[in-house]
Amino acid sequence: MAQSPKGGRSAKRKRSASSSRSPARRPGKKRSQRLRLAPYLAAAAFCVLCLCITLADYVNPFSIFPTWDEIFTTIENLGGGSPEGSGNPAGGDVHSVVKVHMIDIGQGDSILIEAPEANVLIDAGENGKGDEVLDYLKAHGVSTLDIVIGTHAHSDHIGGMDDVIKGINVKKVILPEMSENTIPTTKTYTSLLTAVMNKGLKITTAKVGDTYNLGDGAALQIVGPNGVFEDLNNTSVVCRLTYGENAFLFTGDCEVQAEAAILQRRGITVAADVLKVGHHGSDTSTSDEFLEAVAPEIALISVGTGNTYGHPVPSILEKLENRGIEIYRTDLAGSVVVTSDGKKLTVTTEK
Fold first, then answer.
1. Phi-psi map region of 106: left, alpha, beta (phi>0 left; psi -120 to 50 alpha)
2. DSSP letters spanning 162-209
3. How far is CA 60 from CA 66, 105, 122, 219, 236, in A?
4. Is 145 helix (H, G, I), strand (E, B) or coil?
5. What number of CA atoms fall less than 13 Å from residue 283's CA on the CB side?
6. How far apart are alpha carbons 179 and 173 in whole angstroms?
7. Rounded CA gap, 253 and 173, in Å?
8. Strand 211-215 relative to strand 111-114: parallel, antiparallel, unpaired?
9. Residue 311, SS3?
10. 183-212: buried (b, 16+ CB within 10 Å) or exposed (e) per residue?
């Protein structure tokens, strides 16, 4: 009986102590709740930021945010280089040379890039021209094409590509994205797809910003088309080759609408020492704005002798001449080779 009161007083003291400490723990509980919510709030903020960056490519009010291309460019510049397809040209010292061949295959396009560690073929001329392209490649010691690019699905650009793919070792084939309305059903296009399939290759869809390292600091970047167009000419894959201080721009048959879209793309540069003039010198290409942005010293025009289209048209030639740009045409000079050592350019012609 004597111990009973002590037990009661002890219980009271415990309850009293517990009661007195309770208010002091309430702020800790709130902090704990906030800490538990922090990861969810951070994730939500990150998602909103990603959305704003994505929209920055398309919506002007979001221009305060960088685009994904600009972010990747910054990251790769900090890293001192870029992997294939990263969207940023590789850096590094220049020790070798890059040769760009505008192959004379008549009224059409075929460009060979010989880089330190890779060979690239852009287009292969009209149907029946594949063997001529193959002969040219073999004559220059090219036994493997690391990349083959069909700029767009017109026969004067991809007509000979099926024969090239069948006749030489090819590692990668790049074609433009097309809407369902523009995908051709022509024999020329289906023959190309069949040749790709029979070689066990897969088609890589051209994506603006993708960059392919060609060795020793040389890089080829996809800069167009910026968008999906209904006109096949405007679906042309546009590429920019950089090597040291020199740059080349290859435009396929890109016309003024697609040129304007490329100029609107943030994070993309078209400035180049050498311009492969769009659409064989047609007045549907090479707008004043585009030419001013490229600011080339040399213009290459792939065109057939006495062609029925009147290419290149006088207005385009005059526009180039008024800017003091050197013009080289396959109908007059035959195949043209521009060699870059990373600082200066040298031009040699067949004729």
1. left
2. HHHHHHSEE--EEE----TTT----HHHHHHHHHHHHTT--EEEP-TT
3. 12, 44, 34, 30, 26
4. strand
5. 9
6. 19
7. 19
8. unpaired
9. coil
10. ebeeebbebbeebbeeeeeeeeebebbbbb
Burial class for 52, CB neighbours closer than 10 Å (0-12, 13-18, 19+): middle
Q: Helix (H) and strand (E) counts for the chain? A: 10, 17
- Residue whose structure tokens are 């010198």: 281
Q: In whole angstroms, give the CA distance from residue 198 to residue 305.
A: 35
Sheet holding 98-102, edge to edge: 203-205, 173-175, 147-149, 119-122, 111-114, 98-102, 336-340, 345-349
* Lookup: tokens for 131: 């063997």
CA atoms within 13 A on the CB side of 214: 30
Are 152 and 237 in contact, with CB atoms under 8 Å apart? yes
In this structure, what token pair is assigned to residue 328?
A: 């080289």
CA 308 → CA 89, 128, 253, distances in Å? 39, 19, 17
Compute how many other C-beta atoms are within 10 angstroms of the C-beta atom of residue 349: 15
Tally of CB atoms within 10 A around 303:
23
Q: Report the distance separating Cα 301 and Cα 280, nearest Å.
A: 6
Name the amino acid, one letter, at 226.
Answer: N
Q: Which amino acid would we find at residue 112?
A: L
pLDDT in tens, the chain (351 residues): 444 444 444 444 444 444 444 444 555 555 666 666 667 777 777 777 777 666 655 444 444 556 555 565 445 444 444 444 433 344 445 559 999 999 999 999 999 999 999 999 999 999 999 999 999 999 999 999 999 999 999 999 999 999 999 999 999 999 998 888 888 889 999 999 999 999 999 999 999 999 999 999 999 999 999 988 988 989 999 999 999 999 999 999 999 999 999 999 988 999 999 999 999 999 999 999 999 999 999 999 999 999 999 999 999 999 999 999 999 999 999 999 999 999 999 999 999
